[in-house]
Amino acid sequence: MLNAIEYLFAKAIKKLHLRAIKGSQIHPSSKVCAGTQMVDSRMGKHSDIGYDCLIVKTNIGSFVSMGSNCRIGGASHTMDWVSTSPVFCGNKDHLPQKFSEHPFDAFVQTNIGNDVWIADGVLVRAGVTVGDGAVLGLGSVVTKDVPPYEIWGGNPARFIRKRFDDEVIAALLRIRWWDFDDETLRGKANLFNDVKAFIAMEEGR
């Protein structure tokens, strides 16, 4: 009994952590869990971001499932300058002194496609594009673009396999079911556990 109470209390405390969302657009049907910081980003419909994530300047598609403790995008540094330190950039930061204020765009765009599953603890480098239907495995460190419907994992993340054969992938990318309205999806949802039957229905095969 004590363990059950302790569990419920700890879970309630976790949910009480505030979210920090700035300059971002989140579709009303999507959810961002407690403890997550989201800056200058956009998230499509029916997507879910877990606890304690950091997301910076990222476009997130629809029907994306993201676990907890993920880091997507973030600031770059001036690797081709004399120094990588931000004290030579005009950007705002937490350091008290600037030696120069050269212009530098520290935040490049990161893109997460539709129907992407990102497992717990994944890091995605700023500027990377993750294609529709891709899967990023637990704890992956993603430093390169991931094509649609591919499964990647590891550190650095590498290609593991495709979710489907090329013909099925091409059909799903043509159909773009994530663009359907909710009523249409309800009418077709009975086939979502049978990808070949779904494609046959959509393409009249």
TrEMBL record:
Q: Which CDD domains match?
A: LbH_XAT (cd03349)
Keyword hit for Acyltransferase: yes
Which controlled-vocabulary keywords does the entry list?
Acyltransferase, Repeat, Transferase
Give a yes or no for keyword Acyltransferase in this entry.
Answer: yes
PANTHER family the UniProt entry points to: ACETYLTRANSFERASE (PTHR43300), ACETYLTRANSFERASE RV3034C-RELATED (PTHR43300:SF11)
The family this protein is said to belong to: Belongs to the transferase hexapeptide repeat family.
For this entry, the protein name equals Acetyltransferase
Q: Which organism is it from?
A: Geothrix edaphica
**Lineage of the species this protein comes from:** Bacteria, Pseudomonadati, Acidobacteriota, Holophagae, Holophagales
